[in-house]
Amino acid sequence: MYITCLDLEGVLVPEIWIAFSEASGIPELRRTTRDEPDYDKLMRWRLGILKEHGLGLKEIQDTIATIDPLPGAKEFLDELRSITQAVILSDTFTQFAQPLMKKLGWPTLLCNELVVAPDGMVTDFRLRCQQTKLSTVRALQSVGYETIASGDSFNDLAMIQASKAGFLFRAPESIKQQYPEIPACETYDELLSLIKNAMN
Fold it and tell me: I need a labelling partner for 14 at 20 to 30 A (CA). Which of 90, 101, 107, 123 fits?
């Protein structure tokens, strides 16, 4: 039995922090897990910038309300779910993801949680578990699933490498060059074909 584990941002929807960087006019917030492998370090840095500028959850959610899935993402996901189980493993937060999940047809999402003060300021974050994506893939394998994984960032590499098959999707050249052994693709049709082949 197979289950496909997909990253969210950069694979199915645009990068939320990049969109918020553009909306808020704060270029530093463009930094993502494509640039910084240490997620804890990245998030602590982001929280510091939000605090410095007096920005809270509402401002980020207002930006997220304007974001649509990447062109073709919902159709890809619908077709994928017609042939195999699929789950989205993301380092985003439940407070960010809900409107995006609605636009994608409510796929299964496992992600993290923000800690928000009564005044709406984001004070901390809680990871679902350590090494969230790798831990989840191993847990799925422990209950009898063969996993196939795809993502575009440093924080996707562990789940890709631990899976029966794994693919980079629209990853930056720097990651593709560092990991030439991982098949890379640019379109949903290519990714769907790679997943189908891995299941045969």
Answer: 123
